[in-house]
Amino acid sequence: MSLDGAQLAIFDVKNSGKPAPYEVKLRVKSGSHLIRAEYLNNYNESNHPDRKMRGDRNVYLAGFSVTGPVDAKIETSESFRRVFARMPEAGAESKTARELITSLAPRVYRRPVAAAEIERLGRLADAALADKAPFTEAMGVAVQAMLCSPNFLFRWELDPDALKPGAVRSLNDYEVASRLSYFLWSTMPDARLTDFAAKGELLKGDTLRREAKRMLADSRAEEFVRNFSSQWLQIRAVDEVEIDQKKFPKFSAKLRDAMKEETRIFFDAIVREDRSVFELIETDFTFANQQLAEHYGLPGVFGAEFRRVKIPSGSPRGGVLSQGSVLIATSMPTRTSPVVRGKWVLEQILGTPPPPPPANVPPLEDTKVDKDASLRVRLEQHRDNPDCAVCHAKIDPVGFTLENFDAIGAWRTEDGSSRIDPSGKFSDGTNVDGFTGLKKYLKSEKFARAFAQKMMTYALGRGIERSDKAALDAVQKQMAAGGNRMSVLISAIVTSDPFLKRKRDTAAR
Question: What Å distances lie between residue 424 and 31, 217, 351, CA to CA?
Fold first, then answer.
């Protein structure tokens, strides 16, 4: 036998008439290789010089097989080890499969698993084993079934059959553990949380509050920061606004990414440092790299690394409303949009969305307005349409207070040849003088309640209903008593009735 022309071994093949194996162990580099078998002393009487030897001697090669690695330590992934805590002994594959499934299924389903469920999964593995599948493939069939099951794909909170439609029940420890984990980590409960649920201790005493505090300090809470902030501020829309490069030549994809990163790190700091929710509206710091700092006019920042930056006195920066991610997400490709920005503030910051526009109302560009006038004047002309006036009287004044920020979030005092007037009279009669006045107006109980409602909606995975009003009142009261700090808000939500209880659907089942 030879490999790539180099001899590996020479074998004496016995004249037995029966097949026999011949093995060579060797180390081979990865890649393609040529294996060759050569018969070295073939004999046929017609061509042999010794005429006394008669007959025809032959060797028949049934085939090659390559097996490996042999006697090697195979490194497996963490996920593989989670499934295959141990491998079976010969003849014990079915039993071992059930033991592994019994250990794995409660983690996958996030609850205790009945013996009948284990048996159904075990039978799937048995069927694969009966088809001569390797043990790992047979277990893979059972794992596939678990991961395709509604028990894994959905957070099931199954009500007892005896519970009448519309009736309210308390969630069990496992259900609360899942709600808490998906709220703060966007993933399944860890071993500690599951252990508390198994012992029935999660809902006793102060355990739930302590666990929420622990989970917020964990790196996995970055998912809460990223997902909640992007949903609340709607900054996922940043990528959908195709900024006109001719109109804004300084804008780039890197600047867009820096703006999104600023918002993420800033919100993370508010959560991790347990600051007041009002610092989301106005604060004396942000996070920036050199490119973003230059765009904002913040001095003394050099390099691509993000770092905490103190806002200089007199700067309009500080708080989410002055961040480029929010300002671009509420703009058009070529200009600002006081309508979009005003609507965004009413919906996301104050929780008072305006009614939808009437049908068949043309956009601003299609209406008969003076194209050379300032945007504010054009919107005022647009409001001459009585169908538009009612809504725009609520929306536009709020949007005007953000007009000093252009479509890519840079500060300006003029829009073309027109000086910007950022003042506005809000629908409740309050006169607001520009962006500074807007921030002062927003730092109120209205914002605190709206923010609490947004976070409770995120935590519950559903909209707030009329029956939740008392609970929301209690959450807001706890917030105020605790200095409106993030930890107080989150603690109040996870210990509220809407988080710990559920109402059975009234629809027929």
Answer: 73, 41, 19
